[in-house]
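FOLDING PROBLEM:
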Amino acid sequence: MAENKTKPTGADVTAFLDAVEHPTRRADGHALRALFERISGEPATLWGPSIIGFGSRHYRYDSGHEGDMPRIAFSPRKANLVFYLHYYDGYADDLARLGKHKAGKGCLYVTKLADVDGAVLEAMVRKAWESDGEACA
């Protein structure tokens, strides 16, 4: 069975965020770090080369594949901010009120924080942190 490549690295999260090329995405990354730390009460940890995660949870699929992943996370990618959140009741309702975004197979994509309702995003992150639901994969 393949080993999960996305693991905590111990790399400096502040240095990673400071190195984000796009100035808006860099500023949004710092703002999201503060939001996620406030909600989770956990310090930011770099998982793999580019995912900023908070807390961790163990998962096991029916196939037998298992591993650890952040409970909630985001990544300031080149094209978008990517959110890795747990599913919870009301997810679709929150997305309808969020603002400009794209929802992929299991992740949420936002170009910049100014495009979305901050209160709705904060509520989504809080619900995801408190949820025991299945994680986005």
